[in-house]
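REQUEST ID: PR-0412
SUBMITTED BY: lab tech R.K.
PRIORITY: routine
TASK: structure prediction, single protein chain
INPUT:
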Amino acid sequence: MSELSHYENHKTRIGALTNAIYEAIDEGVEAANIEPTNYFAHGTYGRELLVKAGTIITGKIHKHSCITIILYGHCKVLTDQGDFEVRGPKVLVTGTGSKGVYAYEDTLWLTVHPNADNGQDLEKIENNVIAPSYEALEKL
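STATUS: complete
OUTPUT:
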């Protein structure tokens, strides 16, 4: 499969997964309430999520690659670059685009993003690191 067709396939799969999650919620399935813990250090922003076993999430569309730290747990990750399983502790670099995650075990996930001038304003940080759509990402 060419890189472009894998990318298009991934966008379709993540879109279908996201739609399935919203449909399940509409049908009464309880949505996971995953509140991030935010960390701010000189020039960086860290976002920590505890993803409980059996939970499926779809992430936001990252504009840039970022450092990802799986502190503990076991999950399957769907990315633009391919799907893989990861067990913590593990440090990796994830690319641009969105991700889907299924947690086989409780998984503590931390991403580290650049945050040069935005202090602790999460809206400004997200505007710099998150694309609102794949179309916006493709224009970068």
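NOTES: Helices lie at 3-26, 122-129, 134-138.
REVIEWED BY: pending
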